[in-house]
Design goal:
320 residues, alpha/beta, Alpha-Beta Plaits, 13 strands, binds adenosine-5'-triphosphate, binds magnesium ion
């Protein structure tokens, strides 16, 4: 197994502890109240809309950005003050295309970059093993600038893991990956978890969060609005969602006017509609009658208990 023989395991239960973190870029941008803990040997997923504050939070925890106030502790240390001490124990995969992106020299070849990073750690993983596991052998002599987006992502993940980190921060690790690479990434994340690593990842793929994460932290407009295991967050048995497909752009304001009190409708992606948070026979009747009035057929109409996506949509609808 790739991670066998890790030099270090995390000895504190809460590998990452964040309390009341604030970082304002402007009156409306930044984070204003982020608190969570991420234990060792677990996957903690930070979820939130674009601009919610996930990367800012991760960057503060990695010591790449200072908070205005609040506290972050990683392995019991202050990531800004104790950066040098902490850096060898952290693995960081920056968001692709983000402001903190990779920093890899564009003309460096994949194997050179990996060897360079490996040389910075006392007990690195064998570069050959990483090339093999992340399916990078074929491009080992390719320069960074000539790699495809998904190949760069895989190199970036390899760089985060090469030092056998005790805490891994992975900012959208599966963004832009093909299905095979995504599964490889999930396997690696599960191996890291079994080896006792604390993994903090961000993702926009809520199905990924549901299968991979032990805990999720939902951040909306710079504040934590919910946290817990995916099962905890979707437990409310009385809450059900209704979904249907129809031509995009239906006037949902009119639909909401005929729905029972408290129900709302959203077009979650073009042509895909969701109604919630509670669904009873009257709601189903109202939706089908309204669709008939619009002259459209509600395809694939289903009702089911809430998914993580339903919970996320309900909690983050306000900030649009
Ligand atoms: N260096 C910066 N200067 C000014 N504003 C910034 C800076 N970095 C981030 N922001 C703003 O802070 C907010 C949070 O950004 P952040 O990158 O943390 O969001 P995110 O949740 O990671 O979003 P995404 O899902 O798009 O990656 C956004 O409104 C962003 O525009
Ligand atoms: Mg981000």
């Amino acid at each position: 197994m790739l991670l066998r023989g890790r030099a270090e395991t995390c000895r504190v239960a809460a590998a990452v502890e964040v309390n009341g973190l604030v970082r304002r870029y402007s009156p409306t941008a930044g984070i204003s109240d982020v608190s969570f803990t991420a234990p060792a040997g677990a996957v903690t997923a930070l979820l939130g809309r674009n601009g919610a504050g996930k990367t800012t939070t991760v960057e503060i925890c990695c010591g790449l950005r200072r908070a205005d106030s609040g506290q972050a502790r990683v392995l019991g240390l202050d990531p800004a003050r104790d950066h040098r001490k902490l850096a060898p124990r952290l693995g960081v995969m920056p968001q692709a295309g983000g402001s903190g992106a990779s920093g890899v020299y564009p003309s460096a070849r994949v194997e050179e970059v990996l060897a360079l990073y490996a040389a910075m750690y006392a007990d690195p993983l064998p570069v050959e093993d990483l090339l093999e596991r992340l399916d990078l052998r074929r491009v080992r002599r390719t320069t960074w600038r000539r790699l495809s987006g998904g190949e760069q992502q895989r190199v970036s993940l390899a760089l985060a893991l090469v030092g056998r980190p005790a805490v891994a921060f992975l900012d959208e690790p599966s963004a832009g990956l093909d299905v095979h690479a995504r599964h490889t990434t999930w396997e690696l994340v599960r191996e890291l978890r079994s080896a006792g690593v604390a993994i903090i990842l961000t993702t926009h793929d809520l199905a990924e969060a549901a299968v991979l994460a032990d805990a999720v932290v939902i951040i909306d407009a710079g504040r934590v609005v919910a946290s817990g295991s995916p099962a905890d967050l979707t437990r409310d048995a009385s809450a059900r969602g209704l979904r249907f497909e129809a031509p995009p752009g239906l006037p949902l304001g009119d639909l909401e006017a005929v729905l029972p009190d408290g129900a709302s409708a959203q077009e979650v992606r073009p042509g895909h509609y969701a109604v919630g948070p509670r669904v009873d026979p009257d709601t189903v009747a109202a939706v089908t009658a309204w669709c008939a009035k619009q002259g459209v057929l509600a395809d694939n109409l289903t009702t089911s208990s809430r998914s993580l996506e339903d919970v996320f949509l309900a909690l983050t609808a306000e900030s649009s």
